[in-house]
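Late entry, written up from scratch paper. The run itself happened at the end of the previous shift, but nothing got recorded in the book at the time, so transcribing now.
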Amino acid sequence: MSDYIKLSPSDHVMIALRDLQPGETVQAAESGGAAVTVLDPVPKGHKLLVKPVSQGDDVLKFGYSIGKAKEAIEAGHWVHTHNLETGLRGKLEYVYSPAATAAASENEPPAPGELTFQGYVRDNGEVGIRNEIWILNTVGCINKTCEVLAKMASAEHGERVDGVFHFAHPYGCSQLGDDLKYTQQLLASLANHGNAGGVLVVGLGCENNQIDLFKEVLGEYDPNRVKFMRSQDVSDELETGMELIGELVEYASKFERQPVPVSRLKIGLKCGGSDGLSGITANPLVGALSDRVIAQGGTAILTEVPEMFGAETILMNRASDEGVFHKIVDLVNDFKQYFINHGQDIYENPSPGNKAGGISTLEEKSLGCTQKGGHATVMDVVPYGKRITSHGLNLLEAPGNDLVSVTALSAGGAHIVLFTTGRGTPFGGPVPTVKISTNSELAAHKRNWIDFNAGQLLEGKNMEALSGELLDYLLQVASGDQQTRNERNGYREIAIFKDGVIL
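Output as recorded:
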């Protein structure tokens, strides 16, 4: 294995694949064979400058600028936040480039033979990869009631369905306007998810998010699949709740796994706790997998809008038409306005962990982050809390916060979320959350968190082979033959983006 990697011939930096010490000499064939003497300690995953730059110059990685040099930097120095700053400023004007879109489409892989998984086909035509009962509360006051119900129902019905789960949240009581609207929309989209064979919606009775109002947002529903309980109206909410769950289990248990084409599969794409290898291993691997799923007619959903800043034109140039291009422009600029409204720096790299892992600027993070979308054409842009309706690659409005965005991906319809990480995290969303490590050390250190190791790309595995292995694993998860770590550990949560000025 090499001690470093250079991603593009034009790059000013290479990425250390082990800790580099001052005095070492590295020979980079990609940089014309010039020997570079290391002048500073460079931690693994961080950047070593191999071409000198002047103050104010762009510093290139991935073949794109990841920021401006704060000072003149000599080759051999460590490049990070002390000598590199973002080159992004303010809101930008964008130009539609359909020729670039056509060029991007040429990179999409040919479709292999039709693939299938063993899934559940619901009465309304929706597809699920789990046959679960979900308990959704309209208001945070009854979280504990719902938690107890889930435990009781799991003990009684656990062998008839794939589980009974409650997703706690603190909202719904005194919310008003758009703030209430987005809570209702997010919960309604979860209630319509194909992984839930049955749903019990539990209210208290005095909250703003009244069940009758929630039903209006939910839209048409099957009363055999979705049931409601207003706790203040029944003498014993646990007894009544268990009766209703029993009816839902009876309904859900009629569904059996059957072959379903991958064209019906929806995957969510997310990264968190990124490091300097995220854009080299795990994110490109997920991008290759996304291309494979889309080539089968399936759907991939990319979110984390602030982590598109600096790489947004790559996505804009892959818009399916000018209408979708303008949706992407609005998505990006409206989220920038959100930062401005709160007096925040639009382009501040959001995570100290990202910086510790070797990511210096937001554009560097974004150029790695957007690789999860592969090379596919962007078919649609979907608002926060709404469900995806287009096949292919979709962009979803949500922030970078891990649990908020994974919840939004789940509500959008993702059956599985692929979550890349260089630092690790134990959490899981409402749907199976596949944790993909950027490096083998993390995979070995956190075996109870990590499901798949993209670090193998630095140890002899090629992208085609490893993306094929990941696809096989994905289909095993979808078919119920594998449980993800978050499922085994019982880590399943939701988080709702609460802000009255969200778009």
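The CA atoms of residues 137 and 202 lie 5 Å apart.
(Scratch paper discarded after transcription.)
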